[in-house]
Amino acid sequence: MIISVTSLKGGVGKSTIAQNLAVCFAHGGYKVCIADADTNQSALRWSSIREEDLPSIPAFGTPEKTLSANVKQLAKDYEVVIIDGTPTLDKITSKIIVLADLLLIPILPSGLDIWATEQFLQRYEDAKVERESDISARFILNRFRPNTNLGKEVKEILQDTSIEVMNTTIKDRMAYAEAVIKGLGVIEYKDEKAKNELIDLYTEVLASLPQK
């Protein structure tokens, strides 16, 4: 199973969500790895500082030229491959979308993110044509503040697109940044609210995966 986490805009939490979902899958008994396609390769660094007594989550660098071949090979060796995508309009984004059994698109509640999403939706539609099949996709609202007008407006705009919005939203919590620098996921950390939030997201992701 290949799960792509990508967007056309940086700073939306792709790597954080990819890493935290990988932790949930690992604790769920799945053999999981991360294919790090992001230029800053934060997943590689994060994986390298995980303690040995934690579930293993290897990360592999995936250059654009060999991305498709590398990910397909990883999918033979691992039950779940999570692609940590790169924020760009280059061809690599189309490859990341085409490879996905499930596409997750983190988005912040901001006007700039909505504008970037309009471009992403076109790239998504083009990728479906290229693959000649539908591609299951979900938006994830990150650093979400549910009681703000902007948060409500962004959620309403996304609900009018062709892509579903996850019911679970990721709030703006320090626990995500603190866990990452320790090589942890928030379910391995001390913030119970963040932990429960991620478990809810993981449960939704499991339910969203296409049946094979």
From TrEMBL:
All copies of domain CobQ/CobB/MinD/ParA nucleotide binding, residue ranges: 3-184
Protein name according to UniProt: Chromosome partitioning protein
